[in-house]
């Protein structure tokens, strides 16, 4: 897939992976629109990269989604929708049996799953009018095996992974030209994972892997350790589960 001269909308593009993706897409000659909830962050990003178009929008808010769609339409539309925005609510108590569990799960599902569906539904007709268009949904290795201390986040990404496959096959059946990519990153060094001591890759390396997968039109794009984890999970699922939930996690849950 050719990325130069494309117009790309990146949700959650004011920091982390989204911002790095915006930078690399700009370097390739793409026109990039980024969204985020924090206007201050968006203003900072705009100063760093004046060629970016920054729009404040919360993917969990249906009204914001419609306003974003109308604004993008005024700007001439997009060729690629990159659903990058996601939230992980740290558990107030470890495990899933606590009073705030349902509230956290609802928020994660609203952003990580329902928000993606909402934007895809809004932009699909626009994308179908383009010659070479795509949707990128970001799932996780936690959609393949769950984390015990991030159970609801894992569940939201699993829902998104199944939806992504279904959307891709549905569009193929009806003859749509819109390509559906699933991005499966490993643990990436971002603000979301700053408290984790596990092995991480940089956002720069992650986005390079994404761009390589898009160019080769790999429907499922696994980057870094996500490739090895997929093999381990396929043939040795108990080992894969153990990699995500080591003994130190078990001890934390007991305490």
UniProtKB/TrEMBL annotation:
<dbReference type="GO" id="GO:0016491">
    <property type="term" value="F:oxidoreductase activity"/>
</dbReference>
<comment type="similarity">
    <text>Belongs to the short-chain dehydrogenases/reductases (SDR) family.</text>
</comment>
<dbReference type="Pfam" id="PF00106">
    <property type="entry name" value="adh_short"/>
</dbReference>
<dbReference type="InterPro" id="IPR036291">
    <property type="entry name" value="NAD(P)-bd_dom_sf"/>
</dbReference>
<dbReference type="GO" id="GO:0016020">
    <property type="term" value="C:membrane"/>
</dbReference>
<dbReference type="InterPro" id="IPR002347">
    <property type="entry name" value="SDR_fam"/>
</dbReference>
<protein>
    <submittedName>
        <fullName>Putative oxidoreductase</fullName>
    </submittedName>
</protein>
<dbReference type="InterPro" id="IPR020904">
    <property type="entry name" value="Sc_DH/Rdtase_CS"/>
</dbReference>
<keyword id="KW-0560">Oxidoreductase</keyword>
